[in-house]
Each structure stands twice: as structure tokens, then as C-alpha cells.
């Protein structure tokens, strides 16, 4: 009896404890290891299942590994399809829905191969034995063949010894990030017969053929190619169609001098939707894509989104062929819009302060897409009648213990009167009216935008006690073509005005402590960090990643020669312009900001020389500085421990200069 009475006394306390939610904590850099990444949704032919890739961090091997999963259309059932240390990606349903193919370099393979698994269960079987790199693949409508794009073999790297033959380079465009030095070699179309395992070559020669898509009748392939006299010297691409067999005839559909890409056949096979650049110029850096539709026989295309003045991407036909959906980037949002074909009437399908990506069509007029908002990393959603319904809950465990920064938009005015759209991150539980040390973390591109999506780096900086400001400076997209083109051949001018205007705003509103301002960014964000600290001394600390300043010396050591010659002119012809844009280095003695420089050792996008030069200049001038080089890394840092290290160093550097020392 005493035990029963004791239990009755304790039980309410136990219930109360069980109902009390665990106290949330600020995010820490080690949480990066817990964050998974959802990618590449694919809808089954019957619309009942959606496959996706799920990438996780293996801390023991210090790398990410991707497995394949499948979720039911109602979101009630999830199935893990693969679980291996080799990694699997690019899952695709066979047209009859009975099989799922994927790409993996299993069993010690040096090249990714296509594997096939029965949806009903059992081990996957290797389908191909490719000797070169598989770029892309797609099932034929009858499920008997697979079209693929393969890169020409690199025979110079096939010697019996480990000593590679010298690179022999004679191309105008001779280097690229990740790919390295570019010798001869192209990407071509092939068709693989599943029953006979015979691989037929459809195209050969000097030109690349990419983005193959089967016509609904399975007789033709549409693809993208640049067949100009010297493809390295321009960005022109066109849509072609060819008979899908060895020796098949080829026809050029589009003739726009700019970019035509991303072809998608209409369900009846009579039309092809695709993306076309706005400009027809040789160099198209600050452009935005237009949704176009052309007959399979060629002719004049219909430009559906020409009047929208916003970049569109990821076109998909509805299954009934009456609608084409696209993703639209618009002032810190990316929403799903759709065009009624052929009338061309446009309507937004989803909206709000969130970002959609990876759009796929589904039966009965439905869609699947990834969606992220400032408090939630990307998850899969079904879109029914314009209403998103969540399918996956991959990130629930990641988010449960964390208190995140609050995120809001604001508009600032630059010195010349330009209105600039920005995003502000405030640390959780920030007292009203408290002025905070503030970091301006600047996006790269420059033609991209900061959006209302989950941003791990900015959340981690905010968790360190900082207000964080993301500035959509001129050059960003989402505000129209003129806004993007405003910085053409005029780098480090209007963008800096926009950053300083945003700084004036947060100081005036009592958000930022004017004596504790920092700035940083990666790629063009690092370049703008250099431009800003060479213009204004208000920033007390900076972190410039993968940036450059002495632009004259970038010619020939990065991958942008075509851009330079078209936008700035050749250095020997327009030297004054190049020197003007190099002012952060040439006027480095104006810089008073302690600056941390970072770069990837193997970066061919913005080579480490750009950071090394600025580090050496500040070191010579006696300005506090440090240089971090990440071994073996390209423009993007991919090793998980290096990603954590970068954020840790950001916080350590900013803490040193922006936070008062405690006694």
C-alpha cells in the first residue's frame, strides 16, 4: 500500500517532467555534421512514390555519403533503398515503374556505373561497365534503352606508371575549376541497349552534346550543343534533335546567338519547351533566362516569360500538356509559376517568404518540389492545387534541440537613391533595442540572390551573438535585368554603395553597434569584401574568402578569360580599366581593417593567388591579417572538417575584433 501511495505521489511529477520540453540551445559549428541534405526528387510513373538522395556526414572518413530513399505520395511511409559506403545518386524509375536505376562507383570501381534494382526488393545489379566518366543518363520511353552522355577517355592518364604525361594545351579555354587543365576531349551521346548491353555511339567530334531528352515516341533525342567555330570563345548553345540510333540524322532547331538550353518535350511530342537567354551577345554574365517553346520541326519560338523580367528555370510540362511550370526568382523568393500553353497566360502557383527548387511534374496536375524557409532546411513537398504538403521530415531531429535566429527582410537606400532588398538575421532571444555586433555576410555570384531560405553559415554566425546582414547589391538577380546589369564593367562601385547603405540603415535603426561592424563573404562576396574595406574604414574586422583584388593578374590564371575580354577588353588594350578595378590592391594602404583571407589550394575559379596577394600586402603594411589555405579544395569547400573549420575561424576572428574583452 505504501508503494502505491508513493507512486501516486511521484507520478504527477514524472508526467510533468515528461511534458516539459527540453531547453533549446544555440547552434554550434559541430551541428554541421548532423545536417543532412535532400536532393534530386523523382516521381514514379504511377505517382505513388518519390525517390530522393539523402547525403550525410561520415565523421570517421571526413566526407559526405549519399544514399537513396523513397517516400510515399501521402508522406506516411519512407523506405531506404541503399545503404553502402560507396554512395549512390541519380535514382531514376524505369518507365513501367518496376525498376529503379542509380549511379554508383561500387565494388572498387574507378568510374560511376549504372545499377538496377527491382522495386520489389533484392540486390541491385550492375548494368554498365563504362571506361569513362558518365555525365548524364535517361531511360527511353519503352524502357528498353538508356541514352547517356559520356566524356571522351583521357588517354594521357592511362600510363602504367603513376607519373602522368604532361598536359598539352592549345585551347583558348584551357582550365576550369574541379576539371583542372582542359586538353582535347568532348562529351558525346550514346544509346545503351539494356537487353544486349550494346553501347552505340551517336555523336563524335570536337563538340559537346549535353542534356539529352527522349521524344515521347522514343524515336528522337533533343540535346544541347555549341557548334560555333570556336565554342571556347562564346557562350552560344542551341537545341538540336536527332534520330536516336547510330548514324541518325541531326537537325538544329534554334538559332539564337545567345544561350538555348534545358529542353523538355511536350507530352504529345509536338513541342519542346526550353530556356533562352535574354541577350544574344557573345558574353552573357548578367543575363536572365526566358521560357520559350518551339515546334519539334523548328521555326520561330514563342517567348512565354519575356515580359516577366525575372529569371526562370527548371521548366516542366504538366502530364496533360496544357501547362508548363517554372521556378521564378523574385526579390528574395523563388516560387513556382505556370504558363498555360499555348495562350501564354501566367499565374503564380506558390508564394511566400520561402524558396522552391528541384521541380518535378506528377500525375493529375500535381507537382513535387524541394522547399526551404529561414527556419527549415530543404524538404520534399507535394504541390496539390497550389498548396504545398510536406512529404519528408528529414530535419526534425536536427532542428529539435536548436534555437535559431529570427529572419526578416528590410529595404535600405543607397547614397545614389537605389532601393536595395536585404535579409537580417537576429540571434535568438535578442532583447528589444539592444545594439549588436553585426556581420555583413555578402553573397557570391554576383548574379544570384540572398533568399528566405535556410542559411547554415548565417545561422551559425548569428548563434555566435551577431546580427547578420545579407545584402542583395546591384548585380544580384530577382530584381529585373537592369538591376543585374548595373555593375557591368564597373565592379566594386555600386555594390559597395549598396553595402554601405545597408550598414547605414541597421545603425540608424539601432540594430547594429556602429563600433562593432564586420564584413565577409566567399567568391564575389570575398571580392566585394576587399572592395568595401578599401573604400570605407568603418568595418573593424573582415573575412575574405576565395577573392581577388589585383584583377589585372587574374587574366590567364582563372577560368574567366572570355568574360574579361568581352566585358573589360584585353588588358593590353584597356589597361586603365583593369587598373581601376584593381583598386583594393593598388590602394591597399587605405585599408585599416584586420582581415582574414581564405582560399582552396586547387581553386581554378578564383585561384588562391588573389587571397595571397592581399594577405602579403596587408602583412607588409602591418595590418593584422592571416591566410588560410584548405588543402586539395576547389572553389567550393567540400571536406566536412574544413567546412566546420571555416566557420570556427570566422567566429574566432570576428570575436577577437568585434567583441569587447571581458575582465
UniProtKB/TrEMBL annotation:
Residues 1-18 form the signal peptide. Coiled coil: none annotated. Pfam families: PD40 (PF07676), Peptidase_S9 (PF00326). Keywords: Acetylation, Hydrolase, Protease, Serine protease, Signal. InterPro entries: 6-blade_b-propeller_TolB-like, AB_hydrolase_fold, Pept_S9_AS, Peptidase_S9_cat, WD40. Residues 453-659 form the Peptidase S9 prolyl oligopeptidase catalytic domain. GO terms for biological process: proteolysis. Transmembrane segments: none annotated. It comes from the Bacteria. Gene3D superfamilies: alpha/beta hydrolase, TolB, C-terminal domain. GO terms for molecular function: serine-type endopeptidase activity. This enzyme catalyzes the hydrolysis of the N-terminal peptide bond of an N-acetylated peptide to generate an N-acetylated amino acid and a peptide with a free N-terminus. It preferentially cleaves off Ac-Ala, Ac-Met and Ac-Ser. Also, involved in the degradation of oxidized and glycated proteins. This is Acyl-peptide hydrolase.
